[in-house]
Design goal:
The protein has 121 residues and is α+β, with helices and mostly antiparallel strands. The protein is built from three helices and six strands.
């Protein structure tokens, strides 16, 4: 087998389709998320928003360990697509094409634990 054949074989087996049909675009998880990132970057340059951050992690349930520090449960966290300041308020935003049951639970936990309502686009 040549190097080229090997690379072709590896690339064919490692490419996986997204469960919900989203295609990675411009380093983002979907074309919708990429468009929103571009829009928010324009807003930031225009001064409408400030402090734009992407892929911000919020811990919802911390790691659980026993008295001997053995791992019982890993942490549960939510990763927001975008976080920014607008009119003196922090906005946590997520671009959704489909609301999964897991996302709905994490959205509720964000409100209960951090007091943050997620803005869905």
């Amino acid at each position: 087998m040549t190097v080229k054949e090997y690379k072709n074989l590896r690339s064919a087996s490692s490419s996986r389709r997204n469960k919900y049909g989203a295609k990675r675009t411009g380093g983002h998880a979907s074309a919708k998320e990429h468009r929103r990132a571009s829009e928010l970057k324009l807003w930031q340059r225009a001064g409408v928003i400030s402090g734009l951050r992407e892929q911000v992690k919020y811990v919802l349930i911390p790691t659980q360990r026993d008295t001997d520090s053995n791992l019982l449960e890993k942490e549960c966290s939510y990763i927001a697509d975008f976080v920014y300041e607008m009119d003196g308020q922090t906005v946590v935003e997520d671009t959704k094409g489909f609301r999964t049951p897991e996302y709905i639970i994490k959205r509720k936990l964000m409100l209960a634990v951090h007091g943050i309502r997620i803005r869905e686009i």
